[in-house]
């Protein structure tokens, strides 16, 4: 069993009077005084002006030279649903798109105008063919395994209320596993944290 990815170090705050770094100051998980914004952003989405790194608060940010707008890069929100069978096993899926061949708790992104609960039910149905009733939130974690996309994940407990189990969408296989014996490799380090939490908890919570 591989160990979870090490925690991402916090960037050091800019030193007063220090020169601005280039906008390409390494990926989001490396380097000091990194620019807090899209690494590929070069022009303002409001007016098209050129972006430059400017000190704002405790970090450098991409700022438009023309209109002063900041190109914020905020995390996306992901949702996952944990469904367990009568033996306490957790339904996991093997991915066929990104992270192909690796396993995860069925999950996906919240759409722009979508409620997180609706998104969780939708994603689970799309990937597993099962309709679920959501229970309490089991966990919330920050995901930094992908340098190009910082996300915040919400894991809900769920109970099956309809449908037929079948892998679809981003999954090519679905199967129940005991949380202390998940298949390898797992796609996301935070899924391992959730499975460890489930392995240490009673079946019915």
Give the secondary structure arrangement, pairings included.
Layout: E1 51-56, E2 59-64, E3 76-83, E4 90-95, E5 103-104, E6 107-109, H1 116-128, E7 130-143, E8 151-163, E9 171-177, H2 189-199
Parallel strand pairs: 3-8
Antiparallel strand pairs: 1-2, 3-6, 4-5, 4-9, 7-8
Note down, in words, how this protein is organized.
The chain has 205 residues and is mainly beta. It has two domains: 9-72, no CATH class; 76-199, Alpha-Beta Complex (Nucleoside Triphosphate Pyrophosphohydrolase). It has helices at residues 116-128, 189-199; strands spanning 51-56, 59-64, 76-83, 90-95, 103-104, 107-109, 130-143, 151-163, 171-177. It has a four-stranded mixed sheet, sandwiched between helices. A three-stranded antiparallel sheet has the order 5-4-9, with no helix packed on it. Strands 1-2 form a two-stranded antiparallel sheet. The longest helix is centred in the middle third of the chain and has 13 residues, at 116-128. Residues 1-14 and 25-33 have low confidence and may be disordered.
């Amino acid at each position: 069993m591989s160990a979870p990815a090490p925690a991402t170090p916090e960037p050091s705050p800019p030193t007063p009077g220090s020169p601005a770094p280039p906008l390409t100051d390494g990926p989001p998980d490396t380097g000091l005084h990194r620019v807090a914004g899209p690494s590929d952003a070069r022009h303002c989405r409001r007016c098209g002006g050129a972006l430059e790194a400017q000190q704002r608060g405790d970090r450098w940010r991409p700022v438009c030279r023309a209109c002063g707008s900041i190109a914020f890069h905020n995390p996306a929100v992901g949702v996952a649903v944990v469904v367990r069978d009568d033996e306490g096993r957790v339904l996991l899926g093997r991915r066929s798109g990104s992270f192909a061949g690796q396993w995860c708790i069925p999950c996906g992104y919240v759409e722009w105008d979508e409620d997180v609960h609706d998104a969780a039910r939708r994603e689970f149905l799309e990937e597993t063919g099962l309709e679920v009733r959501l229970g309490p939130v089991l966990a919330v974690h920050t995901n930094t395994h992908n340098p190009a996309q910082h996300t915040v994940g919400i894991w809900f407990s769920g109970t099956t209320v309809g449908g037929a189990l079948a892998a679809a969408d981003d999954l090519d296989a679905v199967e129940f596993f005991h949380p202390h014996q998940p298949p390898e490799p797992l796609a996301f380090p935070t899924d391992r944290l959730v499975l460890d939490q489930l392995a240490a908890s009673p079946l019915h919570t």
